[in-house]
Design goal:
The chain has helices spanning 28-41, 55-67, 84-92, 109-123, 137-157, 178-184, 194-203, 206-219, 227-247, 265-273, 284-297, 398-408, 422-432, and strands spanning 11-17, 45-52, 72-77, 97-101, 127-131, 160-164, 188-192, 222-223, 251-254, 278-279, 302-309, 315-318, 335-337, 347-349, 355-364, 369-379, 390-393, 413-418, 436-440. The radius of gyration is 24 Å and the shape is elongated. The two termini are 40 Å apart. It contains 13 helices and 19 strands. It is an alpha/beta fold.
Length: 441
Amino acid sequence: MNTLSQPLRPTVAVAGLSSPLEVGADQAPALAHGLGALLAEQGFDVVPLGAIDAPAEARAAGRLCAERHVDAIACVAASWFEDYLLVDMLEEHTVPVLLWSTPGMETGALCGSQQLTSYLKQLEWPYGCVFGPIEDPACVGLAQDYLLAAGLKSRLRRARIGLAGQRIGGMTHTAPNEFALKKAIGPRVVPLDVPVLLERAAEFTQEQTMPLWRELVGRAATSRVPVEDGRDSMGIYLALRETVAQEGLDALTVGCYPYLMGRVCIAGSLLADEGIPMACEGDVNGAVGQLMLQLLTGRPTHCTDWLNPLEDGTVIFTHCGSGSFSLAERQSDITLADVRLMGQGACALFPATPGPVTLLSLVGTGSGYQCALLEGEAVSTEMVFRGNPVRVRFARPVSELIDWIHAEGIGHHWMIGYGHVATAVRHWAAMAGPAVKLVEA
């Protein structure tokens, strides 16, 4: 199957900053080249700007940044430099900036960065800073987190989130504030007509759906799903996949509860493998959270409810069974069965794989959006809930976390991605500005 959504690969312009009179200025070209090569090795698309020590060069570099639609500018300071060099560059293309100051007693590189951050702070332009040799692994990690956040900010500005149906009655916190979502985070909501989707799904023939269903059954350990329900699931998958391509969607959600429960779940599993997250219960905010985590981790994500704590202090998170097969701890545990509560359709049931995890919960507010952030460790679990249970251990006592959730009004939906990416999320929230309120326990 073709990937419909590309992984996060930010485009970063790289420049060396200096002032001609200063000690170390002659090293600016080599430092810029070295930083560019380092970032390319880390998976970034690099636009080299070379050494910049004059306003005309800065303006030309800024115009090149605009032409290449860069997501961020990384500047390595070889010596002290005039603060207006970067400001002139940003006037042509305003994006987050990473300032990397190299050590040197006589160069004044750190002085240059400090005076520049004073200017940028007053202008409220987003920036991040690193101090150390460009080959320092710790510095590379700091830079990578910041530049990934800049890429995330840029990608979300262009994102389209499909909403099939409506959010579920009684789940007000899942309702998107479309104006605030666009202003604070960036995605645009694309309404999708459920009757049209179901009509299209019914048009796919047995010759089109049966091979897909047989292939899926072959990937599972057990199937208890009638063939007709399997074919129905494949038809809905094909209809949603077609819509994703036609509308250019980056993620979507379906108002599944209760009547479409079990009919759309397998579509969520399969689309996740193609890079298209699908949140449950018409939760646009959740779909945005899944997209964020997928872009940062490069892996499918879980859309879950926060369920019951266990006696050992871990917490069970899950929904009915729409997770990617790649998220199962053991492929031999994957069972295709009908959905709980409604007893219809097809779901993929399995306990989730262990590993470090990051959890996000996005909720609209009166003035923008709130992003709740947690990190934990997923551990092995049994099928304690009929779905895709994820069992997470946190550093803080669960009782404190529950009190925090109630106090902050976070809600019950949590999106889970594998890997600890909280630092990048923090950078992103700072770049987004006051319209995004980041809350952490």
